[in-house]
Design brief:
de novo design (two linked rop proteins), 2 domains, elongated
């Protein structure tokens, strides 16, 4: 082991694990588990939303690749990303802030989905699936924000 890697290993040992927010809103550093956000149903639903929108936008006109297609995809991906990033932050307040940003992305997504609907883009069954997932994800982010 090199001197540099030995120093890095010592630093990791000396650095306490970040605190994790428990169900009662308190913090518990022993409860921290990297990647535990994957267990959140709202994160799982947001991942489903992202997959659904990629499928829905696959048939959009090529002219929309850098327009509505890109905006819908980015907004959908942003929902799960903000939930994950916020969950791994050090405080309940930061997590709430990121869940709020995720909720904003859901609303942005729903607005863009309505535009796609009015323009007649995409297949109707795939759009309906995306609308349903967006509504469910929006309700779940709202409930999580209120709980935090």
């Amino acid at each position: 082991m090199t001197e540099h890697s030995a120093q890095s290993a010592e630093r990791r040992k000396a650095t306490p694990a970040p605190a994790r927010i428990t169900g009662d809103g308190n913090t518990d550093s022993s409860a921290y588990s990297p990647g535990a956000y994957r267990n959140l149903r709202v994160w799982q639903r947001a991942i489903g939303l992202s997959v659904a929108i990629y499928r829905f936008t696959a048939d959009f006109p090529n002219a929309e690749l850098y327009g509505l297609t890109s905006q819908l995809r980015r907004a959908a991906v942003s929902v799960a990303s903000n939930i994950a990033e916020g969950y791994e932050r050090a405080s309940k307040g930061e997590f709430r802030q990121f869940v709020g940003m995720a909720r904003g992305s859901v609303l942005e997504f729903q607005t863009q989905l309505e535009i796609a609907k009015q323009l007649g883009f995409g297949k109707q069954p795939l759009r309906q699936a995306s609308e349903t997932l967006a509504e469910e994800t929006g309700k779940m982010t709202w409930a999580l924000m209120r709980k935090l």
